[in-house]
Write the structure tokens for this entry.
Amino acid sequence: MEKEEFALKKMINKPDDVVEEMLQGMIAAHPEYLKRVDGCDVVVRAGGSQGKVALVSGGGSGHEPAHGGYVGKGMLDAAVAGAMFTSPTPDQVYEAIKACDGGKGVLLVIKNYTGDVMNFEMAAEMAADEGIEVEKVVVNDDVAVENSTWTTGRRGIAGTIFVHKIAGACAEAGGDLQAVKAAAEKVIANVRTMGMAIAPCTVPAAGKPSFELGENEVEIGMGIHGEPGTHREEIRTVKETTDTLLEKIFAEGIYQEGDEVAVMVNGLGGTPLQELYLANLRVSEVLAEKNIKVAKTLVGNFMTSIDMAGYSVTLLKLDDELKKYLAAPADTPAFVQV
Amino acid sequence: MASKLYQCMQKIGEDIIANKEFLTDLDSAIGDADHGINMARGFTEVLQQLPQEEEDISVILKKTGMVLLSKVGGASGPLYGTAYMKAAGAVAGKKEITLEDGRNMMEAVIGGIKMRGKAERGEKTMLDALEPAFEALNKGIEAGDSPEDCLAHMCEAAKEGVEYTKTIRATKGRASYLGERSIGHQDPGATSSLITLEAIRAFYLEQIK
């Protein structure tokens, strides 16, 4: 048994201890930013959150630095860590809400997955019973999924980071709960992401890759938990692949000549930064050709999928309000902007 | 001496835990490969936390629901948590369960799952096992069948329901992302519901031996 566990080539101790040890390791690394809510898989700002609307997000673990890495000034007030790829439970989300509610209300930022929505909704009902004002937004930026009655709707992926950033800045600037919610919803309406995977990820407790790809095969539109995408194809150059991702994003009809956007090229955990920069080079070329101005570019591992190799491209259309909040300072373990 | 319902919950929990890999494998085909892992984690905790001597059935069921809600996560946590809490509500204060009670519990369970999951039968979910099972149980009771026969019909219908999930596409949950590609695979949630019903039947048969 012991031997079998070690057959899994991962730098872990025991599969069941990964989330707990990761949280402890995060706190040990960032005590100036983060503290743990006692007995819960919840991290909050070390200095607390007073006199403002609080933002709570979270989800299954395995997407680090999401979401604990975004707890800090200008972004989140609390992050709830579920088991690997598994939505946190209502009692944990409820504890997060209670821990950071300062009387101005709490906004829940939920990624659109059946489990996450149900668990966060139950927590919101529990908090509302206690007289806490709670609103929620559901992020659904993944254009690989058709948003129809035949599906549970587009998934929430890397675009969520822009929601944290902009709604967080609005809350920090003194926006009330409705204003913060409106800012978050404006981001959700204007942000779209498309990703792809070269190699699968392995959930430690499962011990084997969550899906298989052929030697020269990639999956376009792969979700951040290994959910199926639009199709599989032979591996091509990063230039061609990035064009494919962008085509799907542009097909949404949101981004037009003369617009101003923010860009995120996000690594899924197993892709080198140099390849992400190659992808970004192509994104910047295409946007220049289309006469779309880039106000801000983020390249890095913002919303990962354990050790999955691959990347996603996110575009966010900006207006003056979004631009202002995007440019506002933020100070968190995973995102610092002065 | 542990109460009867405790023993029944123990049987359900053991069967779910024994099927951890099977449920996870089913989930890896159309979902995110964690159904068995999450359910096993939840029921391991249920078996540890349940008051063994408690005789009020609703107390045991409610506790089961609360533990599942706080330990399972994902979509199964709120759905099974809600199911057991609704079942508890249908037998408040009772120390024994009749076939009638079983029917009322199932009705409450199905109502709770529909409300929480915003789902209907035919969407490749737990409901595709539970609703036919409820109907078969109901029919058996109306026809005056013996409890053994009623439970046998119930499990048979649930099993057919699980088979039926292989023929339809998922429109709820992560499996819905697969669209047509979800056809051919049986639903893990419907399967864990079937395992639960079969455990109840097996426990009953053990009792009347």
The mean pLDDT of chain B is 94.
